[in-house]
């Protein structure tokens, strides 16, 4: 499964730091990233057999650590749905 992280605003932190934190989780691998004037994205692959919910929660926890929950959403490849980080953290 792949998980795309989208940022709806410019990041207040270095994207490399967020990527490094995500890469430090054994179950995830950063496979792409990009940015523009209005936001950016990080593309992840889930590389170990963990549940979908566990993978989404791990990503949400990292984004919360960087105070990015309010400007982020996830789009997992299995459903393509848009998942707000704030909703995952409740």
From TrEMBL:
This is Uncharacterized protein. The lineage of its organism: Bacteria, Bacillati, Actinomycetota, Actinomycetes, Micromonosporales.
């Amino acid at each position: 499964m792949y998980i795309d992280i989208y940022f709806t605003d410019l990041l207040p932190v270095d994207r490399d730091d967020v990527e490094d934190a995500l890469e430090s989780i054994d179950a995830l691998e950063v496979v792409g990233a990009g940015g523009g004037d209005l936001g950016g994205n990080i593309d992840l692959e889930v590389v170990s057999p963990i549940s979908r919910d566990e993978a989404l929660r791990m990503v949400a926890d990292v984004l919360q650590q960087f105070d990015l929950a309010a400007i982020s959403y996830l789009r997992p490849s299995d459903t393509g749905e848009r998942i707000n980080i704030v909703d995952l953290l409740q």
